[in-house]
Write a structure and sequence with these properties.
With about 425 residues, the chain is mainly α. Helices cover about 70% and strands about 5% of the residues. It is built from 17 helices and five strands. The strands form two sheets. It has a three-stranded antiparallel sheet with strand order 1-2-3. Strands 4-5 form a two-stranded parallel ribbon. Strand 2 and strand 3 form a beta hairpin. It is globular.
Length: about 425
């Protein structure tokens, strides 16, 4: 068949056809591509993180905790019981949790702008006051959200997941902000953030196996937070340079005659960090002992439990590889890279909490770990900060998708709303 174009028509040896009719012949292929893209987007949007069996297990869940802290029992809990009366009755418990992290998040953002290299020697003292008071504000509201849930009759498994999920993000934000305030630098900050993260992970891991969240006589959520609050407020009062004084220059250490031998050129900030790290790691050993004794008593194998710890240590190992292979970029853009690891840790921890709530197995190799591996090993070939920013953007989007998906699934199954309290009809 011969064809010849004539203006707005296509001439064939049989008839004249409008060009629009010829274009329509190619449309089905274009529509198929659009349909494939739409279907793929819909599948990603509707991806299920829990499933029917896991949702059914939510109905059997009961939250159990044990706080042995004397400071909590005799001082803070009476304060929290008094403070709950100032929370409006219409405010949803999960919204209380979110409001709690606002001041600390603002302080974190402020720190990124004024202390880009994590040296806050010339920062405004009000930055540290905001960070310290913001952390205390978060601790208070983090303990009021459960009371608000019982007060309004809106307690649900989503509340615990929401609460601990926010905790897993805040622990990194607070650690990074406090380290920057102490002018510890990117390297020591990296170690300090991991110290706080490991205690949170081991406590969650213990709860997964024993069914009880146990806080010791001296624990991170109580005494640990108040110590950091005190550090931040003292930084605002005395200035960040107070953390840069050498340990050997303090009279108390000079009188003992051990300053030069043990601490060398350690600053007060580094010394304080290691003093806080020691009880954290001893707490982890207590968590391991409790889990081992529980599993032996229940006649369950130890292997799968310790394999779950492998997920955390794998994330730490890959992060260290990334750190040493891209040390110059980590030091130049410390917040972006450390926040990438923080989000990966937050999602891995949230998945462990979700597995506990829904009686789901916890797989060793999961999506956040895959993304960090891409960043760590990909940076060997692509030595550019933009590659790191792309990894941060990717893990942020995936974490947001995870949070949305889980919340939507649980709310649809339990017929609740995450951020509002249903109005009771007369």
């Amino acid at each position: 068949v011969s064809t010849q174009s004539t203006g707005s028509f296509v001439q064939t040896n049989r008839q004249y056809l409008p060009t629009t009719m010829v274009e329509k012949r190619n449309r089905p292929q274009t529509r198929e591509k659009k349909n494939l893209a739409t279907d793929l987007f819909q599948k990603i949007k509707d991806h299920k993180y829990i499933g029917k069996e896991g949702l059914k297990a939510l109905l059997e869940y009961k939250y159990r905790s044990c706080d042995k802290s004397y400071l909590s029992y005799y001082v803070l809990q009476p304060f929290w019981n008094y403070s709950i009366r100032f929370v409006p009755i219409w405010l949803a418990p999960n919204l209380v949790t979110l409001i709690g992290m606002v001041p600390l998040t603002l302080a974190f953002i402020w720190t990124i702008f004024v202390c880009p290299t994590m040296n806050c020697a010339s920062a405004n003292p009000w930055l540290f006051y905001l960070a310290g008071l913001g952390l205390f504000w978060y601790q208070t509201l983090d303990n009021l959200d459960g009371r608000q849930a019982r007060r309004t009759g809106t307690s649900s498994p989503l509340g615990q997941l929401f609460d601990h999920g926010v905790d897993s993000v805040v622990i990194s934000i607070a650690g990074i902000t406090a380290s920057a305030a102490s002018s510890l630098g990117p390297t020591v900050t990296f170690l300090q953030v991991w110290t706080g993260a490991i205690t949170f992970w081991f406590a969650t891991w213990e709860e997964y196996h024993t069914g009880v969240l146990t806080l010791g006589y001296i624990n991170g959520p109580t005494e640990g937070i108040l110590i950091v609050v005190g550090m931040l407020l003292s930084t605002g009062f005395y200035g960040p340079s107070s953390w840069l004084v050498l340990v050997k220059d303090y009279p108390i250490f000079q009188s003992l005659g051990i300053a030069n031998t043990l601490f060398g050129d350690w600053t007060i900030g580094t010394f304080t960090m290691f003093c806080c790290a020691a009880p954290c790691y001893s707490t982890c050993l207590t968590n391991v002992n409790t889990v081992v004794r529980h599993l032996i008593a229940e006649k369950k194998p130890l292997g799968p439990a310790f394999l779950q710890l492998g997920t955390y240590f794998s994330l730490m190992g890959v992060s260290l590889f990334w750190w040493f292979s891209q040390y110059d970029l980590w030091v130049q853009y410390p917040y972006f890279f450390q926040f990438t690891i923080a989000l990966a840790f937050a999602e891995l921890t949230s998945r462990l909490i979700l597995a506990h709530l829904c009686h789901l197995p916890y797989e060793f190799f999961q999506r956040p770990l895959v993304v960090v591996c891409i960043g760590a090993f990909g940076s060997v070939f692509v030595r550019s900060p933009y590659f790191g920013f792309a990894v941060l953007a990717l893990i942020s989007v995936l974490f947001a998708h995870y949070c949305r998906g889980v919340i939507v699934e649980i709310c649809a199954f339990l017929k609740i709303r995450p951020l509002t309290i249903p109005v009771k009809k007369d």
